[in-house]
Specification:
Layout: H1 4-11, H2 48-62, H3 71-77, H4 79-99, H5 103-119, H6 127-145, H7 152-155, H8 166-179, H9 193-197, H10 202-216, H11 226-237, H12 241-250, H13 256-271
Keywords: Cell cycle, Cell division, Cyclin
Pfam family, one: Cyclin_N
Protein name: Cyclin-D7-1
Length: about 290
């Protein structure tokens, strides 16, 4: 666990402005540069057996990349922690959209963020600390997922309250890596999207991804496993008997009650058109329009 004093050694500096530079050219992803992007071709010829095996492998791995037990309770108990998390995720999603980064990069960055927060949830998270952690997590995820990694300068947008020297961000990256025990190849709800949607129209796949992005900002879903969240989003978008039959083969029986609960919450909090959650921190005001 990273103590407050050690974190301050890395970050305690006055904000400063970086020299303006030309904006990077967003990565080209077909007709739409914003995520969600279409499923990769490698999944187009996957068999049902291969899909099922990959799904089970992810389920076995996902618990190793979940936040610490009690994290959700701390988020609901301490407003400053929940606010810091929302602000950080908002920044990650916006930057990924503006720079044309892969959807998986955003989900991985949020995973690192949640795991780090959960190990340091008793700290008093000040704004500059959250800003620095957000940039560090996104930088790490970009290095893992992107072919063309954006510079640290371009990751620091006007959505942040502070700017940091590259050396400070790099030190924070190292702190995050050590805290996470260098376990970066995480399983997130987005990991399941291609396995669940490879056989359906790409527009439905995009809707599933859009729901998952919105769910990232809602602390209610922190309690649920990644697979549970992914399957719940799929059920919200595609409601057919064939789908339920497929999901019943993929999801362990003991998890079906969690899927039902998560699906109901998602339908009520995200899918319900009468839910007027349009505040400045709401998913509606953050996620790019598809």
């Amino acid at each position: 666990m990273v103590e407050s004093s050690s974190l301050e050694l890395l970050c305690d500096e006055e904000p400063f402005l970086l020299t303006p530079a030309t904006s990077p050219v967003p990565a080209q992803r077909g007709p739409h540069s914003c995520f969600p992007e279409p499923p990769p071709p490698s999944h187009s010829n996957i068999t049902d057996e291969e899909c099922s095996q990959a799904f089970q492998d992810y389920i076995l791995r996902e618990r190793h990349y979940a936040p610490c037990v009690g994290y959700s309770e701390h988020l609901h108990r301490f407003t400053h922690l929940s606010t810091a998390r929302t602000k950080a995720i908002r920044y990650i999603i916006l930057v990924c959209s503006r720079l044309g980064l892969a959807t998986g990069t955003a989900f991985n960055a949020v995973n690192y963020l949640d795991r780090f927060f959960s190990m340091n949830c008793r700290m008093k998270w000040e704004v500059w600390m959250t800003d620095l952690l957000s940039v560090a997590c996104l930088s790490i995820a970009s290095k893992l997922d992107e072919v063309n990694t954006p510079s640290l300068h371009h990751l620091q947008t006007e959505d942040l309250n502070h700017c940091f020297q590259p050396s400070t961000i790099q030190q924070m990256e190292l702190t995050v890596l050590k805290t996470l025990d260098w376990r970066l190849s995480c399983v997130t709800p987005y990991s399941y999207v291609h396995l669940l949607t490879w056989h359906i129209h790409s527009s439905l796949s995009a809707r599933v991804t859009h729901l998952l992005l919105r769910a990232l900002l809602d602390t209610t879903f922190v309690d649920f496993a990644a697979s549970t969240i992914a399957v719940s989003a799929m059920r919200c978008v595609v409601q057919t008997g064939a789908l339920f039959s497929t999901l019943s083969r993929l999801i362990p029986v003991e998890r079906m009650s969690d899927v039902d609960n998560c699906h109901k919450i998602m339908a009520r909090r995200i899918m319900d058109p009468h839910n007027k959650n349009d505040g400045p921190w709401s998913p509606v005001s953050v996620i790019p329009t598809l």
